[in-house]
Amino acid sequence: MVRSRPRPAARYAAVFAAALMVLTGCSSGASGPRGTSAGAASTSVPSPDPPTWKACGDNLECATIKVPQEYTEPDGTQIPLAVMRHRATDPDHRIGTLVFNPGGPGVPATETLRNLPKTAGTPGAFSSEVLARFDVIAMDPRGVGGSQAVRCLTDEQRADFGTAFDPAVPGGRPLPRLLADAAAFTDGCVEHQSKAFLASLSTDNVARDLDQVRSALGEDEITYYGLSYGTVVGPMYATLFPHRVRQMVLDAPVDTDLWFGDSLAFLNDVAVASERTLDAWFETCRTEGTAVCPFGAGDPQSAFDTLIDTLEAKPLKAAPAEGTAPGGELDGAMALEATRALAGDQHTWPLLTSALLAAQSGNGAPLYTLWSSVTVSPFPVPTAMFEAHTAVRCADWRTPTGIAAHKAAAAKAVAEAKRIGTRAAYSALNCARWPAPNKDRVTEPLTGAGSPPSLVVAGRLDPVTPHHWAENMTRVLDSAVLLTREGVGHGSYGTNSCVDSAVDAALIHGTHPADGTVCETDTPATTRPLVPANR
């Protein structure tokens, strides 16, 4: 789903420094039935004209490609797709075109590609060897970024939707308010764009768009790397166009059967996965002892719960962090969301410890700054990306329209994920009343039959896409190899040397490790704060 992650491409790279400055005092501040099969939905469409590239950055070129809004009506309404290309740095040894989707849904791939040189060591960051051998193509999926981004809320509404949550209440607000919010959101979507466009935002259409880009580039085959929600796009493409796939790597994979078949169970799995990574932080803090992790004086769980309750009762003022956060108030819900995101990556655990210690001592600026950077989440957050994220999910998902199913799912989430479950509760209400049902969605399992074996890469403790989803994906795909990375984090390629070697080998040479191979972490996880507790 999801690079449903707690970051865009930078994975906190920009705010990491800003928050550290604050800490150290260096800053002043279902709708609808599932429909057609994959084969029946693949309508022949004329190839677009070759793109007209224009320089748009260091070794970057940008273009717009027009595609049909509905592939059953190839001569009907056309919509623009924003495409970016990073040319192979060793053109004499160029293999071909590598297309990637960084996730979300809702993350602009072009923005991610533009930032990749600045974000080495983050999930999805390609190695220099891969960049040498491939033209890397980023396509903003329809409804995302430069491809006619979905807009449902005014700036004022967005600010209101993202704040004033109560972390003790399922969904963050009383159910009548949540239902009113869902009505306002979905009404806003149809006010800002047509129902026909909203209904077209499904992943099967994104896959068809991808093939139109392939055709416009004059490529017979593409190599594909997908992260999080990109692992829904990849199998869809391989199922619709198996003979167009040269190699495919799927990192932090989504259970595609669950994605298309049971949105409430999907969200429950995400909540439980996120709760487990928070529990891992608690356990590591407790095990390392107070000399390393002083937060909570040996009982970090109780200290955390007390802190959340305290902040919710009396929020802390947070001064602006120059260039990162405007400043405001840190309440318990914001602290919980920032913690959820930071606990989901063991590389940010020291920053989490520091920020919690600061909040405990009355300085809310670090956690507030980090909260403001959580741009994509499995659950509602106050950003424009949330609108595109929701629109794509609702076009794909099969979501019950009756409130009873959502009440039962909310109770289950809160019971199984004590702290994070309230965030998951009722987060599919927008899709329950989605005004643009997708009546011709692809229904058959995404097996990728006829395409080469895929490399599926999964983290042992992933806060968004749990490991058993990867196991399910390898069973559903006609041919796949599973590679597991030990440790906590969402996305593995670019963060682990063992995984990097395996993914590079798959992309460049088409060779895979043995099925079931496990990569150990490069650096053991620690909760030791970045800043001493007495600062």
Description:
The protein is 41% helix and 14% strand. The chain has 535 residues and is an alpha/beta fold. A 10-stranded mixed beta sheet has the order 1-2-3-5-4-6-7-10-11-12, with helices on both faces. Helix 9 (230-240) links the parallel strand 6 (222-227) and strand 7 (245-251). The longest helix is centred in the middle third of the chain and has 26 residues, at 263-288. The model is unreliable at 1-35 (pLDDT under 50).
Biggest pleated-sheet summary: 10 strands, mixed
The number of E-state strands comes to: 12
- Please state roughly what percent of the residues sit in beta strands, choosing from under 5%, 5-15%, 15-25%, 25-35%, 35-45% or over 45%: 5-15%
Adjacency order of strands in the biggest sheet: 1-2-3-5-4-6-7-10-11-12
